[in-house]
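Work through this:
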Amino acid sequence: MSDTLIVGAGVIGLMLARSLAQQGQRVTLLDRQALGRGASWAGGGIVSPLYPWRYPDAVTRLASWSQGFYPQLSAELNHQTHIDPQYRQQGLLMLEIDDEAQALAWSARYGRELERVDGHRVRELEPALGGDRPTGLWMPTVGSIRNPRLLQALTRWVRQSPRIEVFESCGLVSLITEGGAVSGAFSQRFGRHEADAVVVAAGAWSAPLLSPFGISLPVFPVRGQMLLYRATPGLVRRVSLIGNRYVIPRRDGRVLVGSSLEYEGYHCHPTIEQRRSLEQSAEGIIPALAGFPVERHWAGLRPGSPGGIPFIGKAPGVDRLYVSAGHFRNGLVLAPASTALMTSMLTGQACGIDGAPYALPRD
Protein backbone atom coordinates (compact mmCIF):
# COMPACT_ATOMS: atom_id res chain seq x y z
CA MET A 1 0.00 0.00 0.00
CA SER A 2 1.24 3.48 -0.89
CA ASP A 3 1.62 6.44 1.41
CA THR A 4 -0.09 8.70 -1.13
CA LEU A 5 -2.15 8.02 -4.23
CA ILE A 6 -2.41 10.87 -6.77
CA VAL A 7 -5.27 10.93 -9.26
CA GLY A 8 -4.11 12.98 -12.21
CA ALA A 9 -0.71 13.08 -13.90
CA GLY A 10 -0.55 16.52 -15.43
CA VAL A 11 2.10 18.98 -14.31
CA ILE A 12 0.54 19.20 -10.82
CA GLY A 13 0.37 15.44 -10.27
CA LEU A 14 3.79 14.73 -11.76
CA MET A 15 5.54 17.41 -9.72
CA LEU A 16 3.78 16.26 -6.56
CA ALA A 17 4.73 12.61 -7.14
CA ARG A 18 8.36 13.66 -7.59
CA SER A 19 8.32 15.86 -4.49
CA LEU A 20 6.79 13.19 -2.27
CA ALA A 21 9.18 10.53 -3.54
CA GLN A 22 12.08 12.86 -2.75
CA GLN A 23 10.69 13.03 0.81
CA GLY A 24 10.79 9.24 1.04
CA GLN A 25 7.13 8.47 0.43
CA ARG A 26 5.79 5.58 -1.63
CA VAL A 27 3.52 7.05 -4.30
CA THR A 28 0.91 5.65 -6.68
CA LEU A 29 0.14 7.83 -9.69
CA LEU A 30 -3.02 7.28 -11.76
CA ASP A 31 -4.26 8.98 -14.92
CA ARG A 32 -7.19 8.25 -17.19
CA GLN A 33 -4.91 8.87 -20.20
CA ALA A 34 -1.16 8.96 -20.87
CA LEU A 35 1.05 10.80 -18.39
CA GLY A 36 1.66 14.48 -18.99
CA ARG A 37 -1.18 15.18 -21.40
CA GLY A 38 -4.33 17.24 -20.90
CA ALA A 39 -4.20 20.96 -20.15
CA SER A 40 -0.55 20.83 -19.03
CA TRP A 41 0.60 19.65 -22.45
CA ALA A 42 -1.81 21.88 -24.37
CA GLY A 43 -0.70 25.20 -22.85
CA GLY A 44 1.92 27.74 -23.83
CA GLY A 45 4.58 27.62 -21.12
CA ILE A 46 4.77 31.30 -20.13
CA VAL A 47 6.00 31.30 -16.52
CA SER A 48 3.76 34.19 -15.51
CA PRO A 49 0.04 34.85 -15.40
CA LEU A 50 -1.04 36.96 -18.35
CA TYR A 51 -1.48 40.53 -17.05
CA PRO A 52 -0.48 39.43 -13.52
CA TRP A 53 -1.76 42.59 -11.84
CA ARG A 54 -5.32 41.59 -12.77
CA TYR A 55 -5.21 38.49 -10.57
CA PRO A 56 -5.96 38.20 -6.83
CA ASP A 57 -3.08 38.34 -4.37
CA ALA A 58 -3.46 34.61 -3.73
CA VAL A 59 -2.43 33.88 -7.33
CA THR A 60 0.45 36.37 -7.25
CA ARG A 61 1.91 34.75 -4.13
CA LEU A 62 1.99 31.29 -5.70
CA ALA A 63 3.27 32.63 -9.02
CA SER A 64 6.11 34.58 -7.39
CA TRP A 65 7.24 31.52 -5.43
CA SER A 66 7.15 29.33 -8.53
CA GLN A 67 8.93 31.78 -10.82
CA GLY A 68 11.93 31.78 -8.52
CA PHE A 69 12.01 27.97 -8.54
CA TYR A 70 11.76 27.22 -12.28
CA PRO A 71 15.38 27.88 -13.33
CA GLN A 72 16.59 25.43 -10.68
CA LEU A 73 13.91 22.85 -11.53
CA SER A 74 14.68 23.00 -15.25
CA ALA A 75 18.41 22.53 -14.62
CA GLU A 76 17.81 19.62 -12.23
CA LEU A 77 15.50 17.80 -14.62
CA ASN A 78 17.90 18.30 -17.51
CA HIS A 79 20.71 16.81 -15.44
CA GLN A 80 18.65 13.93 -14.01
CA THR A 81 16.70 12.90 -17.13
CA HIS A 82 18.77 14.26 -20.04
CA ILE A 83 15.66 16.03 -21.32
CA ASP A 84 16.06 19.80 -21.44
CA PRO A 85 12.79 21.63 -20.61
CA GLN A 86 14.30 24.66 -22.39
CA TYR A 87 13.61 27.30 -19.78
CA ARG A 88 14.39 30.72 -21.31
CA GLN A 89 14.23 34.09 -19.62
CA GLN A 90 13.43 36.27 -22.63
CA GLY A 91 10.88 38.57 -21.00
CA LEU A 92 7.26 39.39 -21.68
CA LEU A 93 6.18 42.31 -23.88
CA MET A 94 2.56 43.45 -23.42
CA LEU A 95 0.88 45.84 -25.84
CA GLU A 96 -2.33 47.87 -26.02
CA ILE A 97 -2.63 48.12 -22.22
CA ASP A 98 -5.42 50.33 -20.87
CA ASP A 99 -4.67 49.91 -17.15
CA GLU A 100 -1.00 50.88 -16.96
CA ALA A 101 -1.42 52.68 -13.64
CA GLN A 102 -2.68 49.49 -11.97
CA ALA A 103 0.16 47.51 -13.52
CA LEU A 104 2.82 49.89 -12.26
CA ALA A 105 1.25 50.00 -8.79
CA TRP A 106 1.24 46.19 -8.67
CA SER A 107 4.89 46.14 -9.74
CA ALA A 108 5.87 48.53 -6.97
CA ARG A 109 3.89 46.61 -4.36
CA TYR A 110 5.44 43.22 -5.16
CA GLY A 111 8.88 44.39 -6.26
CA ARG A 112 8.49 42.88 -9.73
CA GLU A 113 10.37 44.37 -12.67
CA LEU A 114 7.89 46.05 -15.00
CA GLU A 115 8.42 49.19 -17.03
CA ARG A 116 6.59 51.33 -19.54
CA VAL A 117 8.48 51.43 -22.85
CA ASP A 118 8.05 53.74 -25.83
CA GLY A 119 7.60 52.76 -29.45
CA HIS A 120 11.33 52.84 -30.19
CA ARG A 121 12.08 50.44 -27.36
CA VAL A 122 9.16 48.21 -28.38
CA ARG A 123 10.73 47.87 -31.85
CA GLU A 124 14.12 47.11 -30.35
CA LEU A 125 12.63 44.33 -28.25
CA GLU A 126 10.60 42.80 -31.10
CA PRO A 127 11.46 44.06 -34.59
CA ALA A 128 8.97 41.69 -36.26
CA LEU A 129 5.90 43.32 -34.69
CA GLY A 130 3.25 44.58 -37.04
CA GLY A 131 1.30 47.84 -36.81
CA ASP A 132 2.01 51.03 -34.89
CA ARG A 133 2.96 50.22 -31.30
CA PRO A 134 3.55 53.57 -29.56
CA THR A 135 3.92 52.14 -26.04
CA GLY A 136 4.04 48.86 -24.18
CA LEU A 137 4.79 47.25 -20.84
CA TRP A 138 7.92 45.16 -20.50
CA MET A 139 8.69 42.51 -17.87
CA PRO A 140 12.31 41.50 -18.55
CA THR A 141 12.57 38.71 -15.96
CA VAL A 142 9.62 36.61 -17.15
CA GLY A 143 10.65 33.22 -18.47
CA SER A 144 9.00 30.56 -20.57
CA ILE A 145 9.46 26.82 -20.66
CA ARG A 146 8.70 24.31 -23.38
CA ASN A 147 5.91 22.58 -21.53
CA PRO A 148 5.85 19.31 -23.55
CA ARG A 149 9.55 18.88 -22.80
CA LEU A 150 9.00 19.72 -19.12
CA LEU A 151 6.30 17.04 -18.97
CA GLN A 152 8.53 14.54 -20.78
CA ALA A 153 11.28 15.18 -18.23
CA LEU A 154 8.91 14.84 -15.27
CA THR A 155 7.43 11.67 -16.79
CA ARG A 156 10.87 10.12 -17.21
CA TRP A 157 11.76 11.06 -13.63
CA VAL A 158 8.68 9.42 -12.10
CA ARG A 159 9.04 6.30 -14.27
CA GLN A 160 12.64 5.89 -13.11
CA SER A 161 11.83 6.36 -9.42
CA PRO A 162 11.61 3.11 -7.41
CA ARG A 163 9.24 4.87 -5.01
CA ILE A 164 6.56 5.66 -7.62
CA GLU A 165 4.16 3.17 -9.16
CA VAL A 166 2.56 4.47 -12.36
CA PHE A 167 -0.78 3.46 -13.84
CA GLU A 168 -1.78 5.32 -17.01
CA SER A 169 -4.60 5.01 -19.56
CA CYS A 170 -6.70 3.82 -16.63
CA GLY A 171 -10.10 4.76 -18.02
CA LEU A 172 -12.69 5.84 -15.48
CA VAL A 173 -11.45 6.35 -11.92
CA SER A 174 -13.55 6.51 -8.75
CA LEU A 175 -12.58 6.97 -5.11
CA ILE A 176 -13.06 4.28 -2.46
CA THR A 177 -14.24 5.13 1.05
CA GLU A 178 -14.38 3.14 4.26
CA GLY A 179 -15.84 4.50 7.47
CA GLY A 180 -15.91 8.14 6.37
CA ALA A 181 -12.35 8.12 5.05
CA VAL A 182 -10.91 7.61 1.59
CA SER A 183 -8.88 4.42 1.37
CA GLY A 184 -7.85 4.53 -2.27
CA ALA A 185 -9.24 4.52 -5.79
CA PHE A 186 -10.67 2.10 -8.30
CA SER A 187 -9.58 2.35 -11.94
CA GLN A 188 -11.51 0.81 -14.80
CA ARG A 189 -8.45 -0.87 -16.26
CA PHE A 190 -6.35 -1.83 -13.22
CA GLY A 191 -8.83 -2.24 -10.39
CA ARG A 192 -8.27 -1.30 -6.75
CA HIS A 193 -5.40 0.87 -5.46
CA GLU A 194 -4.99 1.54 -1.72
CA ALA A 195 -3.15 4.36 0.04
CA ASP A 196 -3.00 6.21 3.34
CA ALA A 197 -3.93 9.48 1.61
CA VAL A 198 -5.43 10.40 -1.77
CA VAL A 199 -4.84 13.62 -3.70
CA VAL A 200 -7.24 14.58 -6.49
CA ALA A 201 -5.23 16.54 -9.05
CA ALA A 202 -7.32 15.71 -12.08
CA GLY A 203 -7.69 19.18 -13.54
CA ALA A 204 -11.05 19.85 -15.15
CA TRP A 205 -12.20 16.34 -14.12
CA SER A 206 -11.64 16.93 -10.40
CA ALA A 207 -15.15 18.09 -9.53
CA PRO A 208 -16.91 14.91 -10.78
CA LEU A 209 -14.56 12.79 -8.65
CA LEU A 210 -15.54 14.72 -5.53
CA SER A 211 -19.28 15.13 -6.12
CA PRO A 212 -20.22 11.65 -4.73
CA PHE A 213 -19.01 12.93 -1.34
CA GLY A 214 -21.27 15.97 -1.42
CA ILE A 215 -18.32 18.26 -2.24
CA SER A 216 -19.31 20.94 -4.75
CA LEU A 217 -15.95 22.04 -6.08
CA PRO A 218 -16.37 25.05 -8.40
CA VAL A 219 -13.89 23.78 -10.99
CA PHE A 220 -15.12 23.60 -14.57
CA PRO A 221 -13.69 22.93 -18.05
CA VAL A 222 -12.61 25.87 -20.22
CA ARG A 223 -11.41 24.99 -23.70
CA GLY A 224 -8.29 26.65 -25.07
CA GLN A 225 -7.05 26.24 -28.64
CA MET A 226 -3.48 26.74 -29.85
CA LEU A 227 -1.46 26.87 -33.09
CA LEU A 228 2.16 26.10 -33.88
CA TYR A 229 3.90 27.77 -36.82
CA ARG A 230 7.03 26.20 -38.32
CA ALA A 231 9.08 29.36 -38.75
CA THR A 232 12.80 30.10 -38.77
CA PRO A 233 15.01 30.76 -35.72
CA GLY A 234 15.24 34.44 -34.87
CA LEU A 235 12.06 35.50 -36.64
CA VAL A 236 10.36 36.14 -33.28
CA ARG A 237 12.51 37.18 -30.32
CA ARG A 238 10.09 37.78 -27.46
CA VAL A 239 6.91 36.51 -25.90
CA SER A 240 4.43 39.19 -26.99
CA LEU A 241 0.89 39.61 -25.72
CA ILE A 242 -2.06 41.59 -27.08
CA GLY A 243 -5.48 41.03 -25.53
CA ASN A 244 -5.85 37.31 -24.84
CA ARG A 245 -3.55 36.35 -27.72
CA TYR A 246 0.20 35.77 -27.52
CA VAL A 247 3.12 34.48 -29.55
CA ILE A 248 5.91 32.45 -27.95
CA PRO A 249 9.17 31.78 -29.82
CA ARG A 250 10.83 28.41 -29.37
CA ARG A 251 14.55 27.75 -29.64
CA ASP A 252 14.17 25.85 -32.92
CA GLY A 253 12.24 28.69 -34.62
CA ARG A 254 8.76 27.36 -34.09
CA VAL A 255 6.25 29.92 -32.84
CA LEU A 256 3.41 28.97 -30.52
CA VAL A 257 0.20 31.00 -30.72
CA GLY A 258 -2.61 31.05 -28.18
CA SER A 259 -5.19 31.00 -27.07
CA SER A 260 -8.95 30.84 -27.09
CA LEU A 261 -11.16 30.92 -24.01
CA GLU A 262 -14.29 28.84 -24.59
CA TYR A 263 -16.96 27.61 -22.20
CA GLU A 264 -18.14 24.55 -24.12
CA GLY A 265 -18.25 21.89 -21.40
CA TYR A 266 -16.04 18.85 -21.92
CA HIS A 267 -15.81 19.25 -25.71
CA CYS A 268 -12.08 19.18 -26.44
CA HIS A 269 -11.95 19.16 -30.24
CA PRO A 270 -10.29 22.05 -32.11
CA THR A 271 -12.49 24.04 -34.48
CA ILE A 272 -11.85 25.67 -37.84
CA GLU A 273 -13.38 28.94 -36.59
CA GLN A 274 -10.83 29.27 -33.81
CA ARG A 275 -7.99 28.24 -36.11
CA ARG A 276 -8.84 31.13 -38.42
CA SER A 277 -9.16 33.49 -35.46
CA LEU A 278 -5.77 32.43 -34.06
CA GLU A 279 -4.11 32.78 -37.46
CA GLN A 280 -5.55 36.27 -37.83
CA SER A 281 -4.32 37.26 -34.38
CA ALA A 282 -0.87 35.75 -34.88
CA GLU A 283 -0.32 37.40 -38.23
CA GLY A 284 -1.60 40.69 -36.83
CA ILE A 285 1.06 40.55 -34.11
CA ILE A 286 3.84 39.16 -36.35
CA PRO A 287 2.93 39.72 -40.03
CA ALA A 288 5.83 37.60 -41.29
CA LEU A 289 4.14 34.49 -39.87
CA ALA A 290 1.79 34.59 -42.86
CA GLY A 291 4.66 33.21 -44.92
CA PHE A 292 5.09 30.08 -42.80
CA PRO A 293 2.97 26.94 -42.47
CA VAL A 294 0.87 26.04 -39.45
CA GLU A 295 2.34 22.77 -38.25
CA ARG A 296 -0.25 21.88 -35.59
CA HIS A 297 -3.60 23.00 -34.17
CA TRP A 298 -4.94 21.53 -30.94
CA ALA A 299 -7.17 22.11 -27.93
CA GLY A 300 -7.06 21.42 -24.21
CA LEU A 301 -9.43 21.79 -21.26
CA ARG A 302 -8.27 24.10 -18.50
CA PRO A 303 -9.62 23.64 -14.96
CA GLY A 304 -11.46 26.94 -14.51
CA SER A 305 -12.08 28.38 -11.05
CA PRO A 306 -13.47 31.62 -9.55
CA GLY A 307 -10.81 34.31 -9.85
CA GLY A 308 -8.32 31.71 -11.06
CA ILE A 309 -7.51 30.79 -7.45
CA PRO A 310 -6.76 27.07 -7.13
CA PHE A 311 -8.10 24.82 -4.40
CA ILE A 312 -5.24 23.22 -2.47
CA GLY A 313 -5.95 21.42 0.75
CA LYS A 314 -7.92 18.81 2.65
CA ALA A 315 -11.39 17.93 1.43
CA PRO A 316 -13.99 18.89 4.05
CA GLY A 317 -15.81 16.05 5.77
CA VAL A 318 -13.73 13.21 4.26
CA ASP A 319 -10.63 12.01 6.04
CA ARG A 320 -7.40 11.38 4.12
CA LEU A 321 -8.70 13.11 0.99
CA TYR A 322 -6.87 16.13 -0.47
CA VAL A 323 -7.31 18.28 -3.57
CA SER A 324 -5.01 20.34 -5.79
CA ALA A 325 -7.13 21.62 -8.67
CA GLY A 326 -8.63 24.70 -10.30
CA HIS A 327 -5.43 26.38 -11.49
CA PHE A 328 -7.29 27.66 -14.58
CA ARG A 329 -4.85 29.24 -17.09
CA ASN A 330 -1.88 29.05 -14.72
CA GLY A 331 -1.34 25.40 -13.89
CA LEU A 332 2.24 25.38 -15.11
CA VAL A 333 2.97 28.78 -13.56
CA LEU A 334 1.67 27.79 -10.13
CA ALA A 335 2.72 24.12 -10.10
CA PRO A 336 5.95 24.37 -8.05
CA ALA A 337 4.32 26.41 -5.28
CA SER A 338 1.20 24.23 -5.30
CA THR A 339 3.46 21.19 -5.01
CA ALA A 340 5.38 22.67 -2.08
CA LEU A 341 2.14 23.51 -0.27
CA MET A 342 0.56 20.08 -0.79
CA THR A 343 3.81 18.32 0.15
CA SER A 344 3.84 20.33 3.37
CA MET A 345 0.27 19.27 4.16
CA LEU A 346 1.04 15.59 3.55
CA THR A 347 4.43 15.40 5.28
CA GLY A 348 4.31 18.16 7.89
CA GLN A 349 7.41 19.80 6.44
CA ALA A 350 7.07 23.60 6.47
CA CYS A 351 7.18 25.43 3.12
CA GLY A 352 6.50 29.04 4.08
CA ILE A 353 3.28 29.31 2.05
CA ASP A 354 0.04 30.14 3.84
CA GLY A 355 -2.56 27.60 2.70
CA ALA A 356 -5.63 29.48 3.98
CA PRO A 357 -6.48 31.31 0.71
CA TYR A 358 -6.69 27.98 -1.15
CA ALA A 359 -8.92 26.04 1.25
CA LEU A 360 -11.80 24.11 -0.25
CA PRO A 361 -15.29 25.55 0.19
CA ARG A 362 -17.48 24.18 2.94
CA ASP A 363 -21.22 23.83 2.31
Summary: The two ends are 32 Å apart (CA to CA).
